[in-house]
Amino acid sequence: MRSYNYKGFDRRYVSPWPICIFYQNHDLDLYRRNKNISYWERAKLLRDIISGLCHIHRERIVHGDIKAANVLIDNSHIPKICDFGSSRVDCSCPADTLLCNGTSQWSSPELLEDGVCTKESDIWAFGCLALEVQFDKYPYNLNPTLAYLSVLKGLPPAELSSAEPVIPGSYPESRVNTATPTIKAEDSYSRRVWSIMQKCWEFDPEDRPDAEELLIEFNR
């Protein structure tokens, strides 16, 4: 399995250990904090990442820990999904329950409840990754306790600032929690990404788009 947007191994060497290419740009979490990246470039990074996730899901693999720290940036500034330590094969067999050890602040409500990762939980986590990349915010302010309590209240990982116009389908004021990060979508790229994030954060997994549908959204 090889793809442009996830990290593989160097096949030129025979070794008892897998050998990976070293990327000087480090992971996406450090990259976006240390570089002056335009809103357009951030949206393009997200588009490339969802393209990589499409390839992973087509191979019936659930990543299980999607976040910016698990995406490396190569020397051509292309994002590569990495760290498959929590990944599982997506199989309907009873013996292959996909138990996950992902990061709680990026975890979907159903993943927090039963610990089972799915393609749908990867999509929720991608929405959290988009929050990091496009808006420089972390889901639930990196507070694991807040993440659990907010999910119980039906609150998303972030809220749109009340100063911004309400986007159709956005969360009502009754669900706003000041302990969760608020963001401003001040440009067309960020408003578009915010709209996509909301779809990723549907509390019913069946209502979330799949990776292929998200890729179509980014390509429009």
What are the low-pLDDT stretches, counting only 5+ consecutive residues below 50? 163-178
- Kindly report the CATH topology: Transferase(Phosphotransferase), domain 1
Can you tell me the CATH superfamily? Transferase(Phosphotransferase) domain 1
Which architecture does the CATH hierarchy give at level 2? Orthogonal Bundle
Q: How are strands sequenced across the largest beta sheet? A: 1-4
Shape: globular
Q: Which percent bin holds the helix content?
A: 25-40%
Distance between the termini: 27 Å
Can you tell me the number of structural domains?
Answer: 1
The share of residues in extended strands comes to: 5-15%
CATH class: Mainly Alpha
Task: Describe the sheet with the most strands.
Answer: 2 strands, antiparallel
Specify the structural class.
mainly alpha
Give the structure's gist in a few sentences.
It contains 7 helices and 6 strands. The chain has 220 residues and is mainly α. The protein has one domain (28-219): Transferase(Phosphotransferase), domain 1 (Orthogonal Bundle).
List its salient traits.
37% helix; Transferase(Phosphotransferase), domain 1; two-stranded antiparallel sheet; 220 residues; mainly alpha; two-stranded antiparallel ribbon; 6 strands; single chain; 7 helices; 6% strand
